[in-house]
Amino acid sequence: MRAEEKKFEKYLRLCGLRFTPERRLILREAFSIHDHFEVDDLFVRLHQKDCRISRATIYRTLDLLVKSGLLREVISGERHSHYEHILGHRHHDHLLCLKCGKVIEFSNNRIEELQKRVCEDYGFKPENHRLQIIGYCNRCQLDQGFT
Amino acid sequence: MRAEEKKFEKYLRLCGLRFTPERRLILREAFSIHDHFEVDDLFVRLHQKDCRISRATIYRTLDLLVKSGLLREVISGERHSHYEHILGHRHHDHLLCLKCGKVIEFSNNRIEELQKRVCEDYGFKPENHRLQIIGYCNRCQLDQGFT
DNA sequence: TTGTTATTGAAATTTAATCTCAATTGCAAT
DNA sequence: ATTGCAATTGAGATTAAATTTCAATAACAA
Fold first, then answer.
1. A133 by DSSP, 3-state: which?
2. What's the rounded Cα separation, in Å, for the pair A99 and A15?
């Protein structure tokens, strides 16, 4: 069994929940996508494979996957949830352009370290984090002289 | 005219839009709240003052206020938008507990500085940002031995 | 004043997410 | 195996946020 399945099963057992076939299929599908995805992406992909899993179950399972620390919710500009898996996926944060909607990924070790220290100060155990910087990209700044 | 109104009017003019009485009222109400608020908070407060402004107008105006850099959307655990004003409001970030939902505010200058540097590297002009660290608070860690 | 264009409100619509509930399934105890 | 209890599922109803539509109105420049 793959690492992520082990971890999920462990989490479920600890909560008195069950590692059902549906939950395994959803987990596998989520981990087969090496990019951001949304609920409907999973639904479509599963149904293309003739897995008739309902949306309700996908919603419920994604909640569990986030709680177990296997997925994280990434915030895009859109008003519905987007996810990406954590295990085996390099962490990154985002610059979001207010004008053209462009998303730039970046990562910075020193910021991560400082976050760890903040957590220590508060006795907080981080599972994951998200950092978005919202503003204007290179190109769009030219049109934004109003400040 | 207050600083925020000046800035908003400037933004609107530049976009070929109008600084209408409704927009002014919404802006004032938003800036009278020195805390997070949601669309409905504004709607209720305005109607208590007999300002019969429709929800649609509030939604439309809040979009503009965010685009103009006067408000920022803060992400709470809930699935609808929350806002806070930027001008004259001390910036902070959040620690969110996955288990009990507790929100801890923190701020860290060195993280902010590093963010600025990241932006410089990408030629990006930041208007605001949001950083959330998700995990388990002091108290809830004890119950979370599954990792 | 006039014409153009943005804006508004009210209601309809869209969309995401949650809830309900009966049928089913997993699983531990027998 | 069998049984019984509790968790899980799917389908559809429901909730709630946000967006769209469109006719009436208002802002503003000429």
1. strand
2. 44
B116 forms bridges with which residues in the sheet?
Answer: none
Q: How far apart are CA B52 and CA B43, in angstroms?
A: 9
Q: How many CB atoms lie within 10 A of CB B95?
A: 24
Question: Across the interface, do B95 and A122 touch by the CB < 8 Å criterion?
Answer: yes
Place of tokens 């898996």: A85
Strand pairing category for B37-38 and B82-85: antiparallel
**Which amino acid is it at A133?**
I
Domains and CATH numbers, chain A: 1-89 (1.10.10.10), 91-147 (3.30.1490.190)
The alpha carbon of B114 is separated from its chain's Cα centroid by a whole number of angstroms, namely 21
pLDDT at B146: 47
Q: Which residues 75-94 of chain A have a CB under 7 Å from nucleic chain D?
A: 79
Question: Which chain A residue's Cα is nearest to B131?
Answer: A131
Q: What is the mean pLDDT of residues B10-21?
A: 96
pLDDT of residue A5: 96
Interatomic CA distance for residues B94 and B100, integer angstroms? 14
Residue B52 scores a pLDDT above 90: yes
